[in-house]
Amino acid sequence: MAGSPDPEDFLAEALHDLEVRGLRRTLRCLEPGAEGTARVDGRPALVLASNDYLGLAGHPRLIKAAREALETHGCGATASRLIAGTWDLHLALEAELARFMGCEAALLFNSGYTANVGLFQALADRGDCLFSDALNHASIIDGCRLSRAEVVVYPHRDVDALARLLRERRGARRRFVVTEGIFSMDGDAAPLAAIAKLARREHAFLIVDEAHALGVIGPDGRGACAAAGVEAEAFLRLGTLGKALGCFGAFVAGSRRLREFLINRCRSLIFTTALPPVVVAACREAVRVAAEQPGLRERLWTNARYLRAGLEGLGYTVGGGSQILPVMTYEPGVTMALSEALLERGVYVQGIRPPTVPPGSCRLRVTPTAAHMRADLDRALAAFAAAGRAVGLLR
Ligand SMILES: Cc1ncc(COP(=O)(O)O)c(C=O)c1O
User: Fold this and answer.
1) N or C: which end of the chain has fewer CB within 10 A?
2) Threshold 0.85, pTM exceeds
3) Residue whose CB lies within 8 A of the most ligand 1 atoms, among 116, 119, 139, 241, for a mutation test
4) Is beta strand 350-352 parallel, antiparallel or unpaired with respect to 362-366?
């Protein structure tokens, strides 16, 4: 009789399989350093891998707000929002976010991932149809899968194809179009003006994930819908608080009725402990700082333009057109070799491989922030020149 299966065996096999395909991932350990830097696996490095686009994560005003909330509210929310976890700070932040986003209401979630995983299941069911951009984030993909609606994936940013697909599904009970504002891994923007016009014509509901646009583009950093002038056309906008706002969490911005509906129907809101008040207090301050200090956005964009031009000047292919700079490396081996060669030269940039991006489109995702100085970027460019030559990408 065969012996009982060893649970370690299948884990080892799966990890070995990832290893041979160049897709095995490991965690890097960061320790705090000066602004825009950290010790990465014990090595001092300039960090060009974070989503802290405005450099707010370590901002003294946010730290002060968090400290004060810690004293008054303690460490945890103590329960789900629907039980005993809705504190004064949650409601105050929701009211401020609604004002900031120019809509009736906002509703906090514990993260962008949990928001997306819950939203589609709450909103769409059998008989409905979700139209999702081919490069939408994994959380949107997972959320769509959890709903029982038909999911139609449309080619990336292709409004004509979307129009055709929407026409073909006119018999669906409700149709939702979901797109990111600025795409997380490609750094390009959705054609929101055209998509909003199409959605209006087709009577479809528009959902925009503003994760990488909030705080970064649009008036006062209100995001991609605001930049395109289609805020009022979106049925729902999702903002995240862990990227440009430097904290943690997410929110849905929309109508008062949408907020009430989600409180009643969204499982990823109902069945989880609420965000700790200490985090919520820091988020409130972050929204204020982001709106009050347009100089942070200007610095971010100046840095992104400078680094993009420098990388292209070295001979790299850089995609997108935003603060996210995908430096194309295509295959996993060279991607991780370049990431390692950069870390050896004091620059931390993460390699992005499948399943995060489609096979053959690996890249380094380079993200300067408002905290970086011109000298930092020059140092990064020198490292990119030397590392690119060391791994054979540049001559
Ligand atoms: C487009 C998009 N939506 C949602 C999320 C998830 O947000 P969070 O990190 O708050 O879970 C991400 C995170 O990377 C993202 O890129």
Assistant:
1) N
2) yes
3) 139
4) antiparallel
* Ligand 1 touching residue 184 (CB < 6 A): yes
Residue of minimum CA distance from atom 7 in ligand 1: 112
Q: Which of 73, 90, 243, 372 is catalytic?
A: 243
Please list the ranges in the chain whose pLDDT falls under 70.
1-2
pLDDT score for 4: 81
From ligand 1's centre to the CA of 112, what distance in Å? 5
Distance (angstroms) between ligand 1 centre and the Cα of 114 equals: 9
Q: Which residue has the tokens 């600025």?
A: 182
* 284 C-alpha to ligand 1 centroid (Å): 19
- pLDDT per residue as tens digits for the range 242-290: 999 999 999 999 999 999 999 999 999 999 999 999 999 999 999 999 9
139 ligand 1 Cβ < 6 A: yes
Q: What one-character DSSP code corresponds to residue 27?
A: P
- What the chain holds in terms of domains, given with CATH numbers, is 24-57+294-390 (3.90.1150.10), 77-275 (3.40.640.10)
What is the per-residue pLDDT for 5? 82
Phi-psi region of 364 (alpha: psi -120 to 50; beta: other; left: phi over 0): beta
Which residues contact residue 18 at a Cβ distance below 8 angstroms, ignoring those fewer than 6 apart? 24, 25
**For ligand 1, is residue 215 a contact (CB within 6 Å)?**
no
Best of 117, 156, 240, 322 for a ligand 1 pocket test (most atoms within 8 Å of beta carbon): 240
Between the CA of 198 and the centroid of ligand 1 the distance, in Å, is: 26
Active site residue 156: no
Report long-range pairs for 93-100 (Cβ below 8 Å, ≥24 apart): 93/280, 93/283, 93/284, 93/287, 94/251, 96/284, 96/287, 96/288, 97/239, 97/251, 97/253, 97/287, 98/253, 100/220, 100/222, 100/287, 100/291
